[in-house]
Specification:
About 70% of the residues lie in helices and about 0% in strands. It is built from 18 helices and no strands. Helix 1 runs parallel beside helix 3, helix 8 runs parallel beside helix 10 and helix 12 packs across helix 14. It is elongated, with a radius of gyration of 32 Å. The protein starts with 8 loop residues before the first helix and ends with a helix.
Length: about 425
């Protein structure tokens, strides 16, 4: 009987490589579930038997096979087995980024985004079921949320689908993996103020309609939206200060030049420039309000008492910013259109208006009146507000809901209003 000799490292790798090749090649012969499950287990065990130096190549071979067979769930099953088997050999660590498991997960996640269409739900399913989701894997999903796609065929699918995949994956992780909630929610919130309206609108719908209803997310979402609203007011005020300083410098230079130029022509040019500049600044402020405050407006629809917070910020804002907010809130489909004349929060605001926010209240009332006749309770509250503020402009939207004698008592004041 010949003595048994240990195999060398190269001999072991040769046997493992041949075994791996045979297991990958026998896919068509293992349709029976029993043999398929055995094959999946053998594939992961063979890779685990490899010495560390050669294991990377074996894993890459298996990952390539997994991605090529992912659409019919077989690749998903092998990926899960391989990830769990790799993770079982890892020591307890605070982070698995850069480890064998972390690199494997990142390769599979990146491969899914490159090989599968964005409407395929394999990515969120995989990340819900793996042992640990690494930061590197989350970075891949975050890039999808921001439409930073590195797909092999990016022209085949719209960016909208990739953004939807990224955001829906973040939502699933928030719900199913509480340990990742803070990071994933932060990504979703940052997308709500993204400069790209496609990303911003999708993120706002997700946060306001789904995540805001989660008890653990409601407070952080509200705090973020409020902070963005206040930051917008500060940013607008600072921007106007810079513009004012620049205008003073330009006016000084223009004054020096006017000594040499025709005075009348100079005044006309300055007036035209001022009109153009005012229009440009208004458009900039409307864009600023849309980008930074749309999430807060969406939350106001879900929690209408936030309207009082909006009124407080509005009251402290600059005149130019208040006008921009008025345009945004009163636009077609804007915040005002989400309120009805029977909204308790609106009635409360009419009864106890925030000083300085009367303009916002008038926009809300006018928008409601344009869509439906205000109810009697609202008209009565507005009539009381008129007697308190002595501002007949509040009455215009609710005239149709006032009684005849009430209209006659205020008619003279309304007639005196400028056109």
């Amino acid at each position: 009987m010949q003595p048994v000799s240990a195999l060398s490292t190269s001999e072991k790798e040769a046997i493992c490589q041949d075994t791996l090749r045979r297991l990958v090649a026998c896919q068509k012969d293992v349709d029976v579930i029993l043999f398929h499950n055995l094959r999946v287990q053998l594939l992961t065990k063979v890779v685990g038997m490899w010495e560390k130096d050669g294991r990377d190549q074996a894993i890459q071979t298996l990952v390539t096979f997994i991605l090529g067979d992912y659409s019919n769930r077989r690749g998903h099953e092998i990926a899960e087995h391989l990830l769990y088997d790799t993770f079982s050999r890892m020591p307890d660590l605070d982070s698995y980024d850069g480890t064998e498991y972390g690199k494997l997960l990142q390769n599979i996640v990146e491969g899914i985004t490159e090989k599968l269409p964005p409407r395929n739900k394999s990515l969120p399913i995989l990340l819900r079921e793996v042992p640990v989701v690494t930061t590197d894997a989350l970075d891949v999903v975050e890039r999808l949320c921001n439409a930073d796609v590195k797909s092999g065929e990016p022209q085949t699918h719209s960016l909208s689908d990739w953004v939807t995949l990224g955001l829906s994956t973040m939502r699933d992780l928030i719900i199913n993996r509480p340990v990742l909630e803070e990071r994933c929610l932060s990504v979703c919130l940052s997308c709500t103020v993204h400069e790209n309206p496609l990303i911003r609108d999708k993120a706002i719908r997700l946060v306001a309609n789904q995540l805001y209803a989660l008890p653990s997310c409601s407070i952080p979402i509200e705090e973020f939206a409020s902070e963005r609203l206040n930051h917008m007011a500060s940013e607008a005020a600072d921007g106007l200060k810079v513009e004012d300083e620049g205008t003073k410098v330009l006016d000084g230079k223009a004054e020096e030049g006017s000594k040499l130029d025709n005075a009348d022509a100079h005044v006309d040019n300055m007036s035209a420039d001022a009109d153009v500049k005012a229009a440009v600044e208004t458009a900039k402020l409307v864009t600023l309000v849309t980008e930074k405050s749309s999430l807060f407006f969406a939350l106001c629809v879900k929690k209408q008492t936030l309207l009082h917070t909006l009124s407080t910020v509005y009251a402290k804002a600059t005149k130019e910013l208040r006008e921009a907010i008025d345009k945004t809130v009163g636009s077609n489909g804007g915040l005002a259109s989400a309120f009805s004349s029977s909204s308790p929060a609106l009635l409360q605001l009419v009864q106890s208006p925030v000083h300085g926010a009367e303009g916002l209240l008038r926009v809300m009332l006018q928008n409601i009146a344009d869509n439906a006749e205000p109810i009697r309770d609202l008209a009565t509250c507005v009539l009381r507000l008129y007697h308190t503020k002595n501002d007949p402009r509040f009455l215009i939207p609710v005239l149709g809901s006032l009684k005849k004698d009430e209209i006659l008592s205020v008619l003279q004041t309304i007639v005196k209003l400028p056109e």
